[in-house]
Specification:
1 helix, binds magnesium ion, Jelly Rolls
Length: 254
């Protein structure tokens, strides 16, 4: 494991502790050798520009490089119409958003995407797609490399709410990564919000969202309030009419 991976894992553990208000378990003495050790996970390998890495051994793989069997059309659950290439899939413009068949809540999510090369269009009309956590909260996918748009709509923004801390975009045609830690909202039986969501994002290994608290689901020119719903919902990817590519998508439930 290289230094950056180690830093990433360390920072991730720290943020998880903060997000969940983790406390030292009083049941165990310090350094107690009877305390069960955590499960062993093969961490897999990092991706290169030429090839996707291997997901951690306990991850649910949402794209195996071959087919969209884990995905359906968001609007009606029919088979996903996006194009599958050699080890990647690509937005088929105007076919609509796609979503996972399964539902997910609190999670660690890894997504890789590639912006069209040569780039086309400007501002929001340039390589626009999006990762919708629980189908509702968008981490923006956009070509923000030497391309300007409003801050809370650029790549790695929590769209309409939080600009990324920095612009860590790679050039069009390069594979890029999002590593996302998501803690969804909770509601009581009456539908009252008892815990807002929290999200942390690393863009190409660089921290861009530091445990921010969404104001509610993503909207366009609006910030709608939270609405009571289940703890788990399908993950969605946005069709914004641009041929953005994806590969190596995996998720670990938290
Ligand atoms: Mg978008």
């Amino acid at each position: 494991m290289n230094t950056r991976s180690l830093l990433l894992v360390g920072a991730t553990a720290l943020l998880f502790a903060v997000a969940t208000n983790a406390q030292v378990d009083p049941k165990w003495e310090i350094h107690d050798r009877n305390r069960p050790n955590p499960a062993v996970v093969d961490p897999g390998t990092a991706s290169t520009q030429d090839a996707p890495g291997k997901p951690p051994s306990d991850a649910i793989v949402l794209f195996n490089g071959k087919d969209l069997s884990q995905w359906v059309e968001k609007k009606d659950g029919s088979p996903a119409k996006w194009k599958v290439g050699d080890g990647y899939f690509e937005v088929a413009p105007n076919t609509g958003d796609i979503r996972t068949k399964d539902s997910f809540g609190d999670c660690q999510l890894h997504v890789e995407f590639r912006e069209p090369d040569p780039p086309k269009g400007q501002d929001q009309d340039r390589g626009n797609s999006g990762v919708f956590l629980m189908g509702l909260y968008e981490i923006q996918v956009l070509d923000s490399y030497n391309s300007k748009t409003y801050a809370d709509g650029q790549a790695s923004a929590l769209y309409g709410q939080y600009p990324p801390l920095v612009n860590a975009s790679r050039a069009p045609g390069q594979w890029q990564t999002y590593d996302i830690i998501w803690h969804g909202p909770r509601f009581d039986a009456s539908g009252k919000l008892t815990r807002p969501a929290h999200v942390t994002v690393f863009h190409n290994g660089v921290l861009t969202q530091d445990n921010v608290e969404p104001t509610g689901p993503t909207g366009h020119h609006v910030r709608p309030p939270y609405q009571a719903g289940p703890d788990k919902l399908p993950l969605a990817l946005q069709d914004h009419d641009h041929p953005v590519r994806y590969r190596n998508i995996w998720i670990r439930a938290l």
